[in-house]
């Protein structure tokens, strides 16, 4: 598990491109037949990518979380960003088509992920895990792709028409901290989260997917008065600390998983910034 300690906004102006990418961009989460994990100390979020191509993979524990099993003190929201697959939690199998979401509550012991009938890397399941500490156990719950609460946002005329699906949230699947969903850009729309916002109460991560291999998202981060950008490829994640804006524009349409943890779970507890006020 890679360890990344938390950073403060005063650090950002002194960072060059390589350091910004090292701290806030997560690449290589999805490696065939491997479990790849990053511990970001922002709100103690752990990101894990599991890519079961030829073998099933277990989400086991890591020395860095000092737990007997991964979910001893944690919960997670999981989105399948690859082909069809299954997650088996203590003997109960859940089928996840592309874009489906599984919440796993504290206390789950044996968590095994597999592809359904994959014949190679291209159609293998790719499970993206966003985990945070949990104080109690909520039931493990599956939400099929598109079955959460939908919000239609933006306008094609400003290239930000998108459908936001809320899966784990206050009025949906219950959790201690994790709030999670998937936002899909409509064809021809390129901007997410515009106008942009921060939420000083929560850390958020975006995992961009369904982006063509040669396309990129220019992801904007930093305090609204001091922004920087990251050039992000398919199935790469960004860490947005509580003080950072998070918004992006693609060179092609894409979909992304957003997930948060922190002080509260109030989706609308955010501070918006008109782009004219950003620097
Ligand atoms: O705090 C909420 C998150 O940034 C996302 O839900 C925003 C988003 O998906 C969008 O506007 O497209
Ligand atoms: Zn946000």
From TrEMBL:
A molecular-function term among this protein's GO annotations: zinc ion binding
Binding-site list for Zn(2+): 197, 199, 204, 246
Q: Which reaction does it catalyse?
A: 5-dehydro-4-deoxy-D-glucuronate = 3-deoxy-D-glycero-2,5-hexodiulosonate
Q: Might you give the EC number(s) for this enzyme?
A: 5.3.1.17
Matching Gene3D superfamilies, A to Z? Jelly Rolls (2.60.120.10), pectin degrading enzyme 5-keto 4- deoxyuronate isomerase, domain 1 (2.60.120.520)
Q: Which InterPro entries match?
A: KduI, KduI/IolB_isomerase, KduI_N, RmlC-like_jellyroll, RmlC_Cupin_sf
Keyword Transit peptide present in the record's keywords: the answer is: no
User: Which note does the record give on the cofactor?
Assistant: Binds 1 zinc ion per subunit.
Question: Which Pfam families does the record cross-reference, listed alphabetically?
Answer: KduI
Whether Zinc counts among this entry's keywords is yes
Cofactor(s) of this protein: Zn(2+)
- Which UniProt keyword terms apply here? Isomerase, Metal-binding, Zinc
Q: Which domain of life is it from?
A: Bacteria
Could you mention a single GO BP entry for this protein?
A: pectin catabolic process
* Protein's pathway: Glycan metabolism; pectin degradation; 2-dehydro-3-deoxy-D-gluconate from pectin: step 4/5
Q: NCBIfam families in the record, alphabetically?
A: PRK00924.1
The function of this protein is:
Catalyzes the isomerization of 5-dehydro-4-deoxy-D-glucuronate to 3-deoxy-D-glycero-2,5-hexodiulosonate.
The UniProt entry's sequence similarity note says:
Belongs to the KduI family.
> Which HAMAP family does the UniProt record give?
KduI
The name of this protein is 4-deoxy-L-threo-5-hexosulose-uronate ketol-isomerase
């Amino acid at each position: 598990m890679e360890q990344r300690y938390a950073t403060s906004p005063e650090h950002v102006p002194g960072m060059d491109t390589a350091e910004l990418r090292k701290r806030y961009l997560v690449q290589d989460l999805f490696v065939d037949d491997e479990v790849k994990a990053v511990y970001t100390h922002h709100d103690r979020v752990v990101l894990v990518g599991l890519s079961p191509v030829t073998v099933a993979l277990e989400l086991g524990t890591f020395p860095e979380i000092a737990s007997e099993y991964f979910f001893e003190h944690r919960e997670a929201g999981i989105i399948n960003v690859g082909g069809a697959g299954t997650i088996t939690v203590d003997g109960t199998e859940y089928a996840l088509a592309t874009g489906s979401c599984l919440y796993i509550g504290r206390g789950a012991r044996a968590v095994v992920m597999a592809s359904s009938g994959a014949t190679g890397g291209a159609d293998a399941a790719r499970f993206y895990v966003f985990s945070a500490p949990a104080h109690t156990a909520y039931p493990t719950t599956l939400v099929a792709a598109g079955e959460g609460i939908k919000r239609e946002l933006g306008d094609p005329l400003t290239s930000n028409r998108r459908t936001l699906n809320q899966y784990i949230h206050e009025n949906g699947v219950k959790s201690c901290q994790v709030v999670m969903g998937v936002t899909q850009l409509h064809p021809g729309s390129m901007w997410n989260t515009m106008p942009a916002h921060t939420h000083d109460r929560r850390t958020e991560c975006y995992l961009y997917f369904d982006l063509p291999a040669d396309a990129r998202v220019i992801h904007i981060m930093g305090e609204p008065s001091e922004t920087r950008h990251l050039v992000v490829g398919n199935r790469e994640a960004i860490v947005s600390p509580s003080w950072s804006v998070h918004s992006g524009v693609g060179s092609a349409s894409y979909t992304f998983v957003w997930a948060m943890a922190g002080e509260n779970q109030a989706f609308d507890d955010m501070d918006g910034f008109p782009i004219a006020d950003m620097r």
